[in-house]
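User: What would this chain look like folded?
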Amino acid sequence: MDHLEMVEKLRAHADVGYEEARAALEETDWDLLDAVVLLERQGKTRPGGASYTTREDPREEERPCRGRRDCHHRADRFFAWLGDLFTKGSRNMLEVSRGGSVVMTIPVLVFVLLLVLAFWIVIPLLIIGLFCGCRFALRGPEVEREEVNRVIGKASDMAEGIKQEFTRETRESRE
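Assistant: Here's the prediction, encoded as structure tokens.
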């Protein structure tokens, strides 16, 4: 391990800058363990017990961006996650059917955007659709799960039950 790597390892363990880490290593004849002990005696190490990790920097999630490369790496990860989200949202569909035939299919991404941008319009339309006999289901590689569609189906069944009870009460009141 070269001197620069040793300084960086020491900085990762202690709350010191480059110059202090280098001075501690030079004082201990470039012995990393002795330099850590020296900085611990001076009260310049981070508190906490011993730990083991396979990540290069165990506090990677806790610290803000250090330098351009680190910020670019985080931005790349964020945009990769966002790209995956858009891909999954466009591959999976919300299917609206009535009377056993599919009336409309829209990407989940479009549905979520409509839900966010026009909440007060989309929710009443969904409720009206339920009471008009429409059934909703999610289709696609990531959402083809029976539990989700079963819950959506129960909402449709509940709306159908309410509708039937309402029409029954209306008929009884007329008679």
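The mean pLDDT is 81. If you want, I can go into more detail on any region.
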